[in-house]
Design brief:
The structure holds two protein chains of two kinds.
Chain A (H helix, E strand, L loop, with lengths): L19 E6 L2 E5 L13 E5 L11 E7 L2 E8 L7 H6 L7 H5 L6 H16 L5 H29 L3 H22 L8 E2 L2 E2 L5 H26 L3 H7 L7 H6 L5 H4 L7 H4 L20 H28 L17 H6 L1 H12 L7 E8 L4 E8 L5 E7 L1 H6 L2 H5 L7 H8 L3 H5 L1
Antiparallel strand pairs in A: 1-2, 2-5, 3-4, 4-5, 6-7, 8-9, 9-10
Helix pairs in contact in A: 3-4, 4-5, 4-11, 4-16, 5-6, 6-11
Chain B lengths: L2 H10 L3 E5 L6 E5 L3 H10 L7 E9 L7 E8 L6 E8 L5 E3 L8 H12 L2 E3 L57
Parallel strand pairs in B: 2-5, 6-7
Antiparallel strand pairs in B: 1-2, 3-4, 4-5
Classes of the chains: A alpha+beta, B alpha/beta.
Chain lengths: ~425, ~180
Amino acid sequence: MSAGMPTEGSPTLPYTQGGEFVTVGEGLCIRRIYPEGEDSDLSARTMINIGPSHPAMHGTIRMVVELDGETIVGVDVIPGYLHRGFEKECEHHTYHQAIPYTDRLNYCSPLINNFGWVETVEKLFEVEATRRTQLIRTYMSEVSRITDHLTCLGAALMELGALTPFLYMIEVRDWLWEHIANVSGARLTQTYARVGGLARDVTDEWLDRCEHLYVEELIPKLRDVHGLVDHNRIFIDRMRGVGVISREDAVSYGVTGPVLRSTGVGLDVRKYAPYSAYGDVSFEVPIGKYGDNYDRYFVRMREMEESIRICRQLDPMIRATNGEPIVVDDARMTLPDKKEVYSNIEALMNHFKLIMEGPRPPKGEAYHAVEGANGELGFYLVSDGTGLPYKARCRPPSFVNMGAIHLMLLGSQVADIVPVFGQINMIGGECDR
Amino acid sequence: MSAVLSRVISGLGEAVLSHHDRLGDDTIVIEASHRLSASQWLMEDSELQFDMLMDSTAVDWIDEEPRFEIVDHFFSTRFQHRLRVKCRVDEDEARVPSLCSLYGSANWMERETYDMYGIEFDGHPDLRRILLYPEFKGFPLRKDYDKLEAHPLFEERYPGTRETDEVVHPGPRDLDAPK
């Protein structure tokens, strides 16, 4: 797929570079290949620009591709059109104030970002969330993962012309988002996590309704989507064997999540480094075989089924901890009771300090990774002992996965850009931060 | 001390300037000039096999000398263990060896570090800005870069590529004009 002519004298790389770097304009450097058996007549090649204002690019990324007929022989991927200085903003806000910014990273699954951030801060504090908090966080992460996969697959199928699965999936996603809004108060930017706990508690009725949504909406719709596209000739032709990446290259390019698992590497942070309550539930990590778009579609579909399975195991555990606290009893990060604030001076001062200066973790550094919907979402925080993070780094799965997309594109057809890009599931907010 | 950290320290020997495993994150500090050779050893050692560069970034310690700290997070897909490798470079000579010859993911991550901190990577095949545009002045994640700094509109990127360069704003089209 990714035939590349090695440049003279270049050292042998342990991975496929995918073409040689050729500067073609100011600030523009494409990776160009010379397919075997063809004379490299550069004048026969066409340079076209796709995006950033293109519906298939989801409005946030630009690609400059060089075409030989319909074949992609050169590509430059230019992200950054949605860059808004996430890390700089976080350095100027307290650990609590930064939580709404994390919503806007991967806005299809904001809760996973929320939990990743607050768990990293809790790691700096060396504090462990209460049992009920951990159970609810795990449950909510899985609901978020389902909504993210529904968005990804719905949009990817729509771009291939399958509008019905898109409507099915987006409808279910909205049911779930509305359902999360019932407890968090917001549909999209949910800001549900707090350092040391959660914003609000969930009720048994909420869990009942979630199970009802799974049974009545999600599971039938997933079955319908399977029936519509799995054996569809057009779908298979557009997906099977398209966007192939080898296992070695995926590892070398730091690819994680469903894209890595589609190549047969069964790595999942939830499995090998269980956080929250993932150690208490049993689930499978679906893997693919060929590392192509079709496998990625199936990995995501199967992951949603596993998410439902995790939720169903957590359901009785959450009910069993009814009435237990959802915040840790630690004045360094948890706001005191309103009753206390109005009646005694220590609580009032504590409240004031936490709001004005923020929680102040001890000096140190921490890296914590959670399994986002697109791969490993890591936060690297450096604390200098004040209420503002000295350094707040987000390891974005989309950005790193996009760094390998040229391998999947070079040598394939121009129409393959759309399904490959759809299955990478680049989320602008997370890729560009 | 974890088995990974003790193996790294015994293997790299003098190259490890300091180490810690606070909060459960195994960390070593090395000389910046050893970044590539140490990474290669970490990748090839049979007991470690750090075959994935999970994350690479930098920290700006503006009051300290040397100023910049490059922070790499390695991960082994075989053993599922992690290691953080840090090295320091000075502001005047902000250059470190690139890891692009070992890891594909180093390409974009080092471009981002260059974009945000102005640290240059020797041996990087394609070092240019990635999230910001080429005309951007300054390096925004440095601590001496003001958050509220505004940027003026920049000039057209490819002057002379239009058909009529002198008419910049043609105004509304005259529908009655002869074709």
